[in-house]
């Protein structure tokens, strides 16, 4: 559904009205298009003394074809400001952040990027450094709410020894693929990663399973993974067979009709995957989900059970069986679709919020064990996304959902899909246990 207010706000008359009345000002976001450069202008890199990442970042960006400015030039508009804060070991040294961003805040382009890099507080040698590094979250979340004009802000914690796993994340955050991701904290662990031969098709040779693929976000995920080179199995319930076939055909994949809540569904899925030419699956995206909204006092037991069953129990059962039969190999990816409702809660959605908080719990509880098998597990948590479902919301609630975020607009299904594709990349092997919100930095739930 078209966002008429955003279209008006970006017109000549609309810009004048919005500015005079102080109304929400949704910018036109820079989203990825084929052939786009990684960054649409020069990037300025700064660092606190003794930072360990600034030089690797400069080399990485230069090798990727990004123009890294040797120093600040007055009047230049920068595509991104990157600051290496790994050298900050005490609160007094946080002043380096003020000095950098105070000086250069106004030099960022429309839809520019701010990226701060630090060290996970629990991996620092002592409480003083841990305290200083934890402080970075307040900075980046505030910048995301201050800079405006479509500028996004992220904090990336990089474990010592994790420098080699940074490239996929920098590529994602600098590009238009992360247009609706802001105010997030991403953690990169130590270890080696597989660098794709072609960054435009990093999933070549991989098999991906996408559940709930017949429409909306699921369809966008299937098409995006196919664009990035994956062979795709698009799965949905038999009732969605026609639209499911259309999606599968559009990405030259396979359609699989299966109700994952059926008792024998995990075994049937496992048999299908084992019998295929791939004899397993590299990427599993648990996107299938339903809502049955009522306050808990008015909610039927069936509505509670069905939402928990589809959104949480079915993905857990599928994971357990596929892993027990070794159908997800080393290098595999499990990606859940949670929701900001699972973080902040939502009136009338106790069942949905419970199920989506459970998806986050699934990620957090399995990450360490799966890492030992060479498998990562992460989740996205979408906010207000423009879909057929949100188009049916009452206009007041729909407008509130669109405007109550730092970008003053709803996201698109492609925004969720691009984030999942980043998690799915072989170059993201050092990223696990993360839950990244795709919500334009929603004002709900921090």
Automatic annotation (TrEMBL):
Q: Which family does it belong to?
A: Belongs to the short-chain dehydrogenases/reductases (SDR) family.
Q: Which domain of life is it from?
A: Bacteria
Looking up Pfam families in the UniProt record yields: adh_short_C2 (PF13561)
Domain named Ketoreductase: which ranges? 206-383
What's the protein name?
A: 3-oxoacyl-[acyl-carrier protein] reductase
Q: Which SUPFAM superfamilies match?
A: NAD(P)-binding Rossmann-fold domains
Which terms in the Gene Ontology molecular function aspect does this entry carry? oxidoreductase activity, acting on the CH-OH group of donors, NAD or NADP as acceptor
Q: Which organism's genome codes for this protein?
A: Actinoplanes lutulentus
